[in-house]
Structures are given as structure tokens and as C-alpha cells.
Specification:
Blueprint: E1 11-18, E2 27-35, H1 54-69, E3 74-80, H2 82-88, H3 90-104, E4 112-117, E5 129-132, H4 135-138, H5 140-163, H6 169-172, H7 178-187
Helix pairs in contact: 1-5, 2-3
Length: about 200
């Protein structure tokens, strides 16, 4: 259901993803909606998730949840599985996630200004969109989307680690660290968790 902040008003939608490159786990796409003129002092410290400490990311995420309950902003995270990535390719599933998130948030193209990080694109129906290189450090809405996506995905990987403790997912979050690569070689890849198209040179 749409947030109260969307009732006929102009708003900004910030979009970013987390988990494009890992060898395991989903990719997460975060979408954040704020009214134009939103007071970012309500949620200090927002920036590129890679430049914000895990502790501060968690604090910012809690602030965002509280503001969402108050109707001052809205957000959603859409995750696409490793299996979907293997079947369709990372670019396609990210595009699908963006489209799905915009539909779930009931974003109206005529009232929206879409800001996306890196090389991301929204569906063509959203005419007022802009892709910004390093947008997560230049636009607060993108930065918050980056943080929300990162925190959500990290929590997912930590939950997975309890089922597969040999792989240390809670430490590397599925990225291709030396330790993770050794775990794959020793224990083999996990169906539906590892991205087989990413680890073909390891197994």
C-alpha cells in the first residue's frame, strides 16, 4: 500500500542495489521515497553504505523504520535469489527488482523524480529519472537506499550462516574473499545459495 506521503505530492525516489558482485546470496535493491524538501536532519549520517560503518548503518536503518511508521518516508527492499541471477543474469534481475519495487510502492510517474545510482535505470514510463555515477555519495535518497539494501542483505546472509556454518557467511556476506573461495573448494557450492555462473572457475 502506498505511503501517506504520496497523496498527490511531488516526491523523490532514490534507488540503489547491494550485492551485485558476491559469489553467494541474493542481490538486494533498495528504493526510498521522500517528499521534495524532505528534512534530512531527521536521519543524520546518510551516505554511501560502503563508507558508513556497520554500526552506523544499523542506526540509520532503525531511524528509517521509525520515520516510515510516522509516514515521513517510505522504502522497500526487493531481493532476487542466486538462482534467479543464474537463470536471467544480474542486470536483468536488478531491472526486474526496480520495476517490482516501484509498482509495490505505487509510484506515479507524473509525480516522481527518480534518482538511481551507477548504471541503474527505471522503466521508461518514468520519464523524470536520472542515473548518477557515485550517486550514493551525492544524493541522500540514493545513499539511504544503499544503506537499507545493504543492511537487509547482510541480515539475510547472517541468517543463512546459521544453516550453513561451515561457509562463514556472517563474516564475508557471500563476497569472494579468499576464505570463502577455500570454503567452496573444500565443501562445494550450495544449490540456490551460490551463484553458479559466478563460481565456474572455482568448482
Amino acid at each position: 500500500m502506498a505511503s501517506k506521503i504520496m497523496s498527490g505530492k511531488k516526491y523523490i525516489v532514490g534507488i540503489d542495489e547491494a550485492g551485485r558482485g558476491p559469489l553467494a546470496g541474493p542481490v538486494a535493491v533498495g528504493l526510498v521515497v521522500v517528499e521534495i524538501g524532505f528534512d534530512w536532519n531527521l536521519i543524520p549520517g546518510v551516505g554511501d553504505s560502503k563508507q558508513v560503518s556497520p554500526k552506523n548503518r544499523e542506526a540509520i536503518f532503525r531511524h528509517a523504520k521509525a520515520l516510515k511508521k510516522e509516514g515521513k518516508l517510505n522504502y522497500i527492499v526487493v531481493q532476487k535469489t542466486a538462482l534467479q541471477i543464474d537463470r536471467k543474469g544480474i542486470a536483468v534481475v536488478i531491472r526486474d527488482a526496480i520495476s517490482q519495487g516501484l509498482k509495490k510502492l505505487e509510484i506515479e510517474p507524473r509525480n516522481s523524480h527518480i534518482l538511481l545510482d551507477g548504471s541503474l535505470k527505471a522503466p521508461e514510463i518514468y520519464k523524470n529519472q536520472k542515473t548518477i555515477i557515485k550517486g550514493d555519495s551525492k544524493e541522500k535518497a540514493i545513499g539511504l537506499a544503499s544503506i537499507i539494501a545493504k543492511v537487509t542483505r547482510d541480515a539475510h546472509m547472517t541468517r543463512i550462516s546459521k544453516k550453513y556454518p561451515k561457509y562463514d557467511f556472517e563474516i564475508h556476506k557471500g563476497y569472494g574473499t579468499e576464505k570463502h573461495r577455500k570454503c567452496i573448494k573444500t565443501h562445494g557450492p550450495i544449490p540456490n545459495i551460490h551463484r553458479f555462473t559466478y563460481i565456474s572457475r572455482i568448482v
